[in-house]
Design a protein that fits this description.
By secondary structure, this protein is mainly alpha-helical. The chain is built from two helices and no strands. It has one domain. The N terminus is likely disordered.
């Protein structure tokens, strides 16, 4: 376990900031201090990580993939209209 007294002044200020953050996250109806909290300090963030970039689809690809479904929907709608007329 790390000792807070061995931390640099910047770390100590960060510790005070973390305490304020924990207090802000505490539910208003909870009338006691939080016993535990996990705070992550992110040193770097790569928004261009290929693992998390969704693969875009062109309009032509989407239209081609959904053509059969849209045709079937049109068939079913026509059938519903025909059945409505018969009843």
């Amino acid at each position: 376990m790390h000792s807070t007294s061995a931390q640099s002044p910047g770390k100590k200020q960060g510790s005070q900031q973390r305490t304020l953050t924990i207090e802000r996250l505490r539910p208003a109806k909870l009338n006691r201090a939080a016993r535990r909290a996990i705070i992550f300090e992110v040193a770097a963030w790569d928004l261009n990580c290929p693992q998390h970039i969704p693969q875009p689809f062109s309009l032509a690809d989407v239209e081609a993939a959904s053509a059969a479904m849209l045709a079937r929907i049109a068939e079913l709608e026509a059938e519903v209209e025909l059945l409505k007329k018969k009843s």
